[in-house]
């Protein structure tokens, strides 16, 4: 079992990461393209490439390629050495577990997905996830010893410093889960983090958050969660991002956390299904179909909930003024019923002519935002991304 520092040693200088990240994002780059992308001087690029290729971190193509429409000397493409190993992302959802295996350039090698029963135990969840993990490794022609690190997403409060689950009402059987227990279960050095936080990290590293130093990601799903990126770092702590427990009404339903009238009791998928039709008559697929067909009741139920989520998001925006708000999760698909009402509510909650309303956009990774955040966490742990958490 490899440890977190095996991939890139102890040198975490920002210039090395800028070079590695640029090549990772593009797949391959010439030296000239690398200089333009990173803004580094040609002499700095030359020295870094010499060091990184000598360490075996980068490969330089034997054959030079000619860029279309250009004249002059041909360039040799640089790429990350795929033989150095891989990382894993494991996303435990409310009813689904996803496993992704990626190379060190964050390119997916294998993916597996499985269904889980409601309120599944840690033993059952880990049994299914380990089977999917083994299947993915086999599909990628890898073994657990090839995996440098794994990021594991869990839907509940996480103590990110101590790397353990805080007594969670979301998955009651997981209260003893730790990074160490995940490492034992999968045979790979692992880190754990809240699923909404990792959705924010995934969109920031690979999706709709790229290019924004500060962003707020809202996970509009079985529960309402949030992840904050400030100065390109994920903000973590004991139970950070639990926006679903913002109070909406002291006369509302009792939440699973024990409080009354939390946002989750009005806007989570279970609350929407209950409001959209007689108990048990509508499932998520049906609700999404009704939205697509323009059903007035479904649209009103969802848009009212989206306004509540947008109002909660506006409070976060008043505190740290993100450049954009990103919406992920099953309910993010509807522009008219979700994105537009959220935008209106967010704008109402801000101070006019003082804070510019950030755009509200859908995440670009669809259902993969959280598992790709777990990949980003694993890349950080193995030394292939600069520190992504604060």
UniProtKB/TrEMBL annotation:
It comes from Herbiconiux ginsengi. Signal peptide: none annotated. Keywords: Kinase, Transferase. It comes from the Bacteria. The lineage of its organism: Bacteria, Bacillati, Actinomycetota, Actinomycetes, Micrococcales. The keyword Cell membrane does not apply. Gene3D superfamilies: 3.30.420.40, Winged helix-like DNA-binding domain superfamily/Winged helix DNA-binding domain. Belongs to the ROK (NagC/XylR) family. It holds the Pfam family ROK. InterPro entries: ATPase_NBD, ROK, WH-like_DNA-bd_sf, WH_DNA-bd_sf. This is Sugar kinase of the NBD/HSP70 family, may contain an N-terminal HTH domain. Transmembrane segments: none annotated. One of its GO terms (molecular function) is kinase activity.
């Amino acid at each position: 079992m490899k440890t977190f520092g095996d991939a890139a040693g102890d040198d975490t200088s920002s210039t090395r990461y800028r070079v590695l990240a640029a090549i990772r994002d593009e797949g391959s780059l010439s030296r000239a393209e690398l200089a333009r992308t990173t803004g580094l001087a040609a002499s700095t690029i030359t020295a870094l490439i010499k060091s990184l290729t000598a360490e075996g971190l980068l490969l330089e193509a034997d054959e030079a390629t000619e860029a279309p429409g250009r004249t002059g000397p041909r360039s040799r493409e640089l790429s990350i050495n795929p033989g150095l190993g891989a990382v894993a992302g494991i996303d435990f959802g409310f009813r689904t577990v996803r496993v992704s295996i990626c190379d060190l350039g964050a390119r997916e090698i294998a993916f597996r997905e499985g269904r889980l029963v409601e309120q599944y135990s840690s033993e059952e969840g880990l049994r299914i996830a380990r089977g999917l993990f083994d299947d993915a490794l086999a599909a990628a022609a890898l073994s657990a010893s090839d995996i440098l690190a794994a990021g594991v997403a869990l839907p509940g409060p996480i103590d990110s410093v101590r790397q353990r689950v805080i007594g969670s009402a979301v998955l009651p059987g997981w209260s003893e889960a730790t990074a160490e227990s995940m490492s034992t279960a999968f045979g790979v050095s692992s880190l754990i983090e809240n699923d909404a936080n990792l959705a924010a990290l995934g969109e920031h590293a690979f999706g709709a958050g790229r290019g924004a130093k500060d962003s707020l990601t809202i996970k509009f799903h079985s529960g309402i969660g949030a992840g904050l990126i400030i100065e390109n770092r994920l903000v973590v702590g004991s139970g950070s991002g639990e926006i679903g427990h913002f109070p909406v009404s002291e006369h509302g339903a009792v939440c699973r956390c024990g409080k009354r009238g939390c946002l989750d009791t009005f806007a989570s998928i279970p609350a929407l299904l209950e409001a959209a039709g007689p108990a048990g008559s509508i499932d998520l697929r049906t609700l999404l179909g009704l939205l697509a067909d323009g059903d007035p009741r479904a649209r009103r139920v969802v848009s009212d909930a989206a306004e509540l989520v947008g109002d909660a998001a506006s409070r976060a925006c008043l505190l740290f003024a993100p450049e954009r708000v990103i919406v992920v999760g099953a309910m993010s698909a509807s522009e008219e019923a979700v994105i537009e009402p959220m935008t209106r509510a967010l704008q109402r909650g801000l101070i006019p002519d003082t804070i510019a309303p950030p755009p509200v956009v859908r995440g670009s990774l669809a259902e993969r935002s959280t598992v790709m955040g777990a990949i980003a966490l694993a890349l950080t742990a193995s030394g292939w991304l600069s520190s992504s958490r604060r």
